[in-house]
Amino acid sequence: MEQTKELGSMTHCAGYAAAAVGPLSRISAIGIDAEPDAPLPDGVLDLVATPAKRNRLGVTHLEPDSPNWDRLLFSAKEAAYKAWFPLVGEWLDHQEAEILIDPQDGTFAALLARDGLIVDGRQVRRLHGRWVRKRGILVTAVVLGST
Question: Which helix (DSSP H) or strand (DSSP E) does residue 74 occupy?
């Protein structure tokens, strides 16, 4: 019997746990994160977002029945980091990934401001992800395919 080589990612928070696994023949990286749909603790947003991003999030918070955008931003950065680190083996600072969230279709992009992520001989500067909000939990995921 032939063994399939796989890779995966895990996450958990209060009330939720998940794992994602995929074949190495089709996937280069997986990163998933789960967070409570609640505001970040005081001071955390200052560590993970630029002043311009914090200003944009402040306006977004005014929308009724929206997710906690600061926590969603944090979660998307965590998912991007979890995809980045196994391939690069180095820390990706929160300031080195700009997250663009599409609130309408549940997607986001992580724009990497740092070299180092090479897949199939190509430099990768943008990771694509999805996010969902259900039962008080925000879940984000990045899957980087192979060619």
Answer: helix 69-88
